[in-house]
């Protein structure tokens, strides 16, 4: 083939390929738009753990891995500062890391500036440890006011108080059998279960809880996966029926 005929042929192929790119992109976007959220077609529950990283975090991570479970960890900034590698381990295992303030002060007792510092300092240290800024926030004790709403919105955080709790923050409940029963009692499709990774008996109860719920066809997902498909407004509370008050 003479060289002069190669140029038009090459150009024609390039133009055809370029024309195909937008069509492929449109097709991919259409497929993405058609994809249903995971929890629209699966029985999902979101397990959440507060106040870490702590002494039992590694044990908890191993248990979750055994059952292919993903969870959400609402961590405290000053503990992240002490245990950055452990915090990074949580994120690398595919779990979600949320903001639980710098040192667990009740925010309704603080000034606007103090609330801003509690949330902002925690946001920065968690981002540094995990390489990703949290998008979820849980107020200590579930105590919130207008200042908390405004500041979480500023940081692009949505509020997740949880929908049910094992109440492991009550000392009288800190028995493995009791906490196992309570976790199974409050479990339900679409629930956000509030627990504490700092409570040894909670961590010890998890194998039995996960085994039982797995047999009931539950999928253990992060909060963000549970809420996938919803329009989420920073500063607002989700799921909308959330009403748990925690220790």
Automatic annotation (TrEMBL):
The keyword Signal applies. Keywords: Hydrolase, Metal-binding, Signal. Residues 1-25 form the signal peptide. The keyword Hydrolase applies. PROSITE patterns: NODB. Residues 43-221 form the NodB homology domain. This is Polysaccharide deacetylase family protein. CDD domains: CE4_NodB_like_6s_7s (cd10917). Pfam families: Polysacc_deac_1 (PF01522). GO terms for molecular function: hydrolase activity, acting on carbon-nitrogen (but not peptide) bonds; metal ion binding.
């Amino acid at each position: 083939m003479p060289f002069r005929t190669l140029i038009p042929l090459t150009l024609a192929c390039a133009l055809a390929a370029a024309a195909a790119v937008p069509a492929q992109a449109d097709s991919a976007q259409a497929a993405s738009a058609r994809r249903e959220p995971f929890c629209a077609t699966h029985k999902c529950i979101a397990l959440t753990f507060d106040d870490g990283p702590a002494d039992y975090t590694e044990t908890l991570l191993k248990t979750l891995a055994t059952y292919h479970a993903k969870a959400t960890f609402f961590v405290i900034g000053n503990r992240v500062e002490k245990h950055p590698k452990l915090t990074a381990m949580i994120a690398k295992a595919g779990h979600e890391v949320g903001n639980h303030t710098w040192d667990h002060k009740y925010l309704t007792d603080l000034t606007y500036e103090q609330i801003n510092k509690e949330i902002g300092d925690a946001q920065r240290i968690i981002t540094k440890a995990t390489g990703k800024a949290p998008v979820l926030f849980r107020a200590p004790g579930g105590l919130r006011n207008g200042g908390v709403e405004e500041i979480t919105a500023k940081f692009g955080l949505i509020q997740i108080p949880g929908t049910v709790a094992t109440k492991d923050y009550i000392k009288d409940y800190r028995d493995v059998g009791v906490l196992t029963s309570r976790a199974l009692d409050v479990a339900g499709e679409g629930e956000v279960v509030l627990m504490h990774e700092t409570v040894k008996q909670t961590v010890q109860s998890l194998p039995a809880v996960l085994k039982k719920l797995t047999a009931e066809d539950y999928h253990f997902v992060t909060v963000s996966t549970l809420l996938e498909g919803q329009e989420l407004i920073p500063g607002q509370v989700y799921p909308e029926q959330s009403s748990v008050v925690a220790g």
